[in-house]
Amino acid sequence: MADDTENLEEEARFEIEPSELDGATHAESLILYRDSQDNIRFAKSLQWKTMGGALAIFALLGFAGLNGATQEGLLKTLIVISWAISAGVIYAICILQSWQNTEREKLRRIVGEFSNMFRAVYRFKSRTETNIHRYIPLSLIAITMLLGNYVLAKLLTPLFDK
Fold it and tell me: Contact, 145 vs 58, CB < 8 A?
């Protein structure tokens, strides 16, 4: 109970300092903030859709190899195509991640101009935690692409001798 009272007193001492921006500049900043947030969400969705599309192509390559390819050279070509697709997907995902980082930097600059309450709420999540939440899924996408290649190669390799 005493801890609750102390927390309430600390919160009461927090003085909100409004933004020093004029109304028009504040409105522009809000538009830029929303735009950056939307760009980050869009880039994240593109990352997952790119991975999903590549895995769908791997499935089609596997289907083509199992049902139509009889020559070893064609089967090896399908595997090489899958590796090239993986390299392209991983490159595209890294470019999208770079774009997200640029948008996050814009957000940090915009947030610095808002009220101290906005800054406090925005910075509530630690940078380390944010990076963990950002780079674990990115790593999982890359690993999934490599595993997709491995599965396709394992699927098609036994057909080389036939």
Answer: no
Tokens of 151: 């599965």
Please determine, for residue 159, whether its predicted confidence score (pLDDT) is greater than 90: no
Round to whole Å and give the CA distance between 95 and 148: 21
Per-residue tokens: 106: 């814009």
Fill in the DSSP letter of residue 112. Answer: T
What secondary structure does DSSP assign to 12-52, as a single string? HH-------S-HHHHHHHHHHHHHHHHHHHHHHHHHHHHHH
CB 159 within 8 A of CB 69: yes
Q: CA 77 to CA 65: how far, in whole Å?
A: 10
Contacts of residue 32, Cβ cutoff 8 Å, sequence gap at least 6:
106, 110
Q: Determine the pLDDT at residue 161.
A: 67
Whether residue 46 contacts residue 95, with contact meaning beta carbons closer than 8 Å, is answered with: no
Work out the mean pLDDT of the chain and round it to a whole number.
Answer: 88
Q: Does the global pTM surpass 0.85?
A: no
Tokens of 9: 């007193």
